[in-house]
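User: Sequence in, structure out. Go.
Assistant: Echoing your sequence, followed by the structure tokens.
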Amino acid sequence: MTREGATADLPGSPPEPDRVIDVPGLQALLDRLVARGYTVIGPTVRSGAIVNAPIRSVEELPRGWGDEQDAGRYRLRRREDEALFGFAAGAQSAKPVFFPAEEVLWRGRRSGEGFEVAAPEAGDGADLPPYALLGVRSCDLSAIGIHDVVLTGRAHADVAYAARRSAAFVVAVTCSDPSGTCFCASTGTGPRPERGRGASYDLSLTELLGGPPGTGTHRFVVEVASDRGAELLDEIGARAAPADDVAAGDRVAADAAGWMGRHLDTDGLKELLYDAAESPLWDDVATRCLACGNCTAVCPTCFCTTVEDVTDLTGDVAGRDRVWDSCFDADHSWIHGGTVRASTKARYRQWMTHKLASWVDQFGTSGCVGCGRCVTWCPAAIDITAEAAALRLAAEPADPTSGGS
């Protein structure tokens, strides 16, 4: 049975039915990807957090681990089951895989004949390792889709990003246990991956821990979203998913959509922020904001960069690197004569207004995918959804019937 609306027609082939695999089947999938030369990047537990890292085995996944997230708070917790994907958004998204925090632009070496400059050969991706991403959440798929537009759709495309993206194999996953800071249901970006929303992917997993009565089978309903995804499932012998499993997967997604810890009212949000440019609420948030840049560092859509010149101790090697930057950095808006946004108030207003308003005018979509990382990892516990709600409340006309006599 094909889940209605979940699988679009693959080019040149009829609609693919959902498949089902068990935990050994997931290991077989990993083995096939490794055999094809992919570096598999998946979630794993390191230093008290769930992070993305190279993996080769399902035993490296966060089996039995969940998380507790709230404003300024992140803690791992032990689950009462053996779920492999029973956690919310990890500390980082897929962004560092395709868009590294630091990347070499060129290197030069002094020689007896002069100075030789070499640029990294990233144009065709031939020297870059192909990545397979496992466990990508729907919010992060939407973020990748935004980067596809921002980084490859402009006049001068990011060739290194494009090379990594075009070579990647993506296995998405339905989020079954959102955190206290998640609000992807508000932004229309989750919790279940959907064809035509966000970046393309090859397969999508929905984890089921219960089974038919009495079996308790740990398994995954697999949506097939590409021909190469179908080919891989054929190689490992994945069978068609029973109707009961498809229905159970639908319930997982529906339940998760109702468990969001935060809500963002997006109705007229762009206009609200434009009209609030001189709101005194920006002064209030500035008294709390540390301008540390944590929110931009963990945001899956932020893409600001700067360049740094580097050299070695001998002076024989020099070069230039591109590194992530943040609009909370005072130097970010520096031009001849000084910094345009000298105050924390101006920087926070710029970040939030760009993310939720002017991004729409630039790229046709909001810059927020509702992952909640900026709320979780803010040391001052500033909540973008609460700030937006405060601006909305301040903009509402006073009720003339509520005043005194």
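User: And one key feature?
Assistant: DSSP finds 13 helices and 16 strands in the chain.
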